[in-house]
Amino acid sequence: MKHIWILPFFLIVFACSKKSSDDSIVLARVNDQVLTVNRLEVVLSPQQRSADQIRTYIHDWVNNAILFQEAKKMGLDKDETLINKKESYFIKLVVGAYLETEASPAITLSKENIRQYYRSNAASFIRSVDDAVLHHFITDNISDARTIQKKLKKKKSGKTMDELYSLYGVDTKTVMKGRLIKELDDVVFRGDGVGVVGPIMVNNNFHIIEIVKKNKKGTRVGLEGAYDEIYQRVLKQNRAAML
Q: Which residues are in the PpiC domain (predicted)?
């Protein structure tokens, strides 16, 4: 039985797809694209390797790998404009990393700082598109897919569900409309209903999605959902002050 688990998009997926002598443990594979332990350790700093952060990264890597293959079919990996932008983008990443390294030690944000920023800038946390809170499972085995579907529909609480999420590297995430594969996006954002959808077959993989909640365009993002965005905004302000 093989399970497939679910950063800037083209650079990360392209780098992980190159053949190399890396013989470390394979964490995920989508056709000829492979994510290994060594590659993950290069991309994620030690401070970013909690169990939840690793699961989220692997989940996103698989989703992006699938989308990247669809883009290759359209010839976008050969697009000269994108190729020319790659070097410029890499330079920006390096500069950003340097500024973050310099700024981070000086940043101390308390919960009250976060709340105050949210209250002062509440109007900027309005959703520009619909989004959905969901659990997204991927497997290449139809039998496993049906088992996942049945367990989700029975929805046993506690240890049973935690083990299922852990086995497939799934956690709760919010996805904006238009960011999933089209076949999945159409199903997730059809109407206002929530619940379990799938299995849906895309590129020889089976997707089962548990839709927990849907949020409409124009509604306000709660403080918890805005926390990371607030941190990044303050970080950018600190960077700008250094220049």
A: 110-219
Distance in angstroms (rounded) separating the CA atoms of residues 80 and 101:
32
Helix 111-120, helix 223-242: angle, nearest 10: 90
Q: Which domains are seen in the chain, by residue range?
A: 9-78 (no CATH), 93-123+226-242 (no CATH), 131-215 (3.10.50)
Is 69 in contact with 30 (CB distance < 8 Å)?
Answer: yes
CB 129 within 8 A of CB 177: yes
pLDDT at residue 77, as a whole number: 79
Residue 58 CA to residue 22 CA, distance in Å, equals 18
Separation CA 178–CA 186 (nearest Å): 9
CA neighbor of 194 nearest in space, from 215, 177, 178, 179: 215
Backbone angles phi, psi at 24, to 5 degrees: -75, 175
Tokens describing residue 105? 């030690």
Evaluate if pTM is beyond 0.90: no
Place of tokens 């053949």: 19
* Alpha carbon distance 110, 113 (integer Å): 5
- Which bin fits 70, alpha (ψ -120 to 50), beta or left (φ > 0)? alpha
The number of CA neighbours under 13 Å toward the Cβ of 128 is 2
Q: Which among 173, 190, 170 has a CA at the least distance from the CA of 130? A: 190
**Are β-strands 173-176 and 131-139 bridged in parallel, bridged antiparallel, or unpaired?**
antiparallel
pLDDT tens for 119-178 read 888 888 888 889 888 888 888 889 888 988 888 887 765 566 777 777 777 778 888 888
Neighbour count for residue 235 (Cβ, 10 Å) = 17
3-state secondary structure of 171: coil
